[in-house]
Design goal:
- InterPro entries: Rad60/SUMO-like_dom (IPR022617), Ubiquitin-like_dom (IPR000626), Ubiquitin-like_domsf (IPR029071).
- Pfam families: Rad60-SLD.
- Belongs to the ubiquitin family. SUMO subfamily.
- This is Small ubiquitin-related modifier.
- Keywords: Nucleus, Ubl conjugation pathway.
- The chain is mainly beta and 90 residues long.
- The chain has one helix at 37-47; strands at 13-20, 25-31, 54-58, 61-62, 78-84.
- A five-stranded mixed sheet has the order 2-1-5-3-4, with helices on one face.
- The protein is 12% helix and 32% strand.
- It has a single domain (13-84), classed as Ubiquitin-like (UB roll), CATH 3.10.20.90.
């Protein structure tokens, strides 16, 4: 007889919600091992923003472009926050 046990549904993709300061939400589905660079570029292009003008955060920590959802421990429906970058100070 064939083994009828089903493997757990372990997807190689994850849905990530990107939430802007104004509450606007854009959802992306990317591979867990893909660099977040692709998501960041797609988001800024979709909204007509310069990539240098925004900062992406996960749980309050700045996200680097080369990081992956796996690196950040992101699970299904995890969230990234987008803030306008601020320069200067002092």
């Amino acid at each position: 007889m064939a083994d009828t046990e089903q493997k757990p549904d372990i997807s190689e993709h994850v849905n990530i919600r990107v939430v802007a300061q104004d509450g606007n939400v854009v959802q992306f589905k990317i591979k867990k091992k893909a660099q977040l660079r692709k998501l960041m570029t797609a988001y800024t292009e979709r909204l007509g923003l310069q990539e240098e003008a925004v900062v992406f955060l996960h749980e309050g920590v700045r996200v680097r472009r080369e990081q992956t959802p796996n690196d950040l421990g992101m699970e299904e429906d995890s969230q990234l926050e987008v803030m306008m970058a601020q320069e200067g100070g002092g």
